[in-house]
Write a structure and sequence with these properties.
The two termini are 25 Å apart. The protein is of the alpha/beta class and 333 residues long. It has a seven-stranded parallel sheet, sandwiched between helices. A five-stranded parallel sheet has the order 2-1-3-4-5. The relative contact order is 0.14. The chain folds into two domains: 130 residues, Rossmann fold; 193 residues, NAD(P)-binding Rossmann-like Domain (Rossmann fold). The chain contains twelve helices and twelve strands. The mean pLDDT is 97. The protein binds 1,4-dihydronicotinamide adenine dinucleotide.
């Protein structure tokens, strides 16, 4: 079985090679992302393995089918970058890794909250520079504040638990499919989206990117939030209309913005561009705000998560190859 891994980073190679000791597949690692320009590289491969920056639209899918690819294995949970209808039409199975470590992403969201609040990322630089001033570092107690969690699935639940049990916040939740158990346990209180926006001091996004959630945080929803709200997004960049957050930051309506994802991240994230000119003016503007903290889609990036991702990805492929039931097959649902 020949497997092409796209968007390969050093850690993908290390962890997938370790997981492959059990299967001995013939794996080729490509640094390039899979998209219309690179789809021809798949000629002769039985399966491709992709991540969040790859784009498999209808055109790419046709090329994959023509080249004999039978399986697309996402080494992530989100699958908004793959045209599932086109996959079905082309008889290509799509599998994902729905759960690897909800803790990893939830803990990263909390890290963004703590850093932004107490300006830890600035304090680190200041102290290294021999500047021991506290100017601009006044934070607030998380204790007793109201945190709103939008999307209370695997990751959102973990974030809610840390906020409730760790920080002792009041936690409001919005999800079209409420988890009544979580409410019974006293972790969250489900409310309408408008109430969550109105009453939360901190809002953290954990919903998937769908046509319904695209740009759900925009100038209208931001206007409903408390002045000076802290907004955290570790889900997908496009759930937020970035330009609207810039306007709200300029006016002080958003007091803190923590992002692990960005709508146009594909041309930036996972690359070392430190000696190049950043041509994305929206991103560059975001970087000028002292109350904005951006990480480059690293929420998932823990040892435990990468091990699980690698093992599950190859196990998914094995099940499809053997025609066994694969609970992570998206094209069957
Ligand atoms: P999940 O599927 O367990 O939970 C998603 C929740 O969002 C579900 O409860 C669903 O009902 C809810 N939801 C759906 N539509 C909604 C809407 N319109 N408004 C509010 N809630 C809505 O997914 P999981 O594992 O918790 O992951 C959530 C998202 O986090 C993924 O879709 C992915 O985009 C992102 N993610 C980010 C990572 C990172 O490294 N930053 C890593 C892994 C996932």
């Amino acid at each position: 079985m020949k497997l092409a891994v796209f968007g390969s980073q050093d850690y993908d190679i290390k962890f997938l090679e370790k997981a492959n000791e059990k299967y001995s597949y013939n794996i080729t690692f490509f640094n390039a992302y899979l998209n219309e320009k690179t789809a021809s590289l798949t000629n002769g491969f039985d399966a491709v393995c992709i991540f969040v920056q790859d784009r498999v639209n209808n055109t790419v899918m046709d090329t994959l089918a023509k080249n004999g690819v039978k399986i697309i294995a996402l080494r992530c949970a989100g699958f908004n970058n793959v045209d599932l209808d086109s996959a079905k039409k082309n008889n290509i199975s799509v599998v994902n890794v729905p759960a690897y470590s909800p803790h990893a992403v939830a803990e990263h969201a909390i890290g963004l909250i703590l850093s932004l609040n107490r300006r830890i990322h600035h304090a680190y630089l200041r102290v290294r520079d021999g500047n021991f001033s506290l100017k601009g570092f006044l934070g607030f107690d998380l204790y007793n504040k109201t945190a709103g969690v939008i999307g209370v699935g695997k990751i959102g639940q973990e974030a809610a638990k840390i906020l409730k049990l760790g920080m002792r916040c009041k936690v409001l939740a919005y999800d079209p499919y409420p988890n009544k158990e979580l409410e019974k346990e006293g972790i969250v209180k489900y409310v309408d989206l408008d109430d969550l926006l109105k009453d939360s001091d901190i809002i953290t996004m954990h919903c998937p990117l769908t046509p319904q959630t695209k740009h759900m945080i925009n100038k209208m929803s931001i206007a409903k939030m408390k002045r000076g709200v802290m907004l955290i997004n570790t889900s997908r960049g496009a759930v937020i209309e970035t330009r609207d957050t810039i306007e709200a930051l300029k006016k002080g309506q958003i007091g803190y913005l923590g992002l692990d994802v960005y709508e146009e991240e594909t041309s930036l994230f996972y690359k070392d561009l430190s000696s190049e000119i950043i041509t994305d003016d929206v991103f560059a503007r975001l970087m000028t705000f002292p109350n904005v903290l951006i990480t480059a889609h690293q929420g998932f990036f823990t040892k435990e998560a990468i091990e699980t991702i690698s093992n599950t990805t190859l196990s998914n492929i094995e099940k499809i190859l053997k025609n066994e039931k694969c609970e992570n097959e998206l094209t069957k649902k």
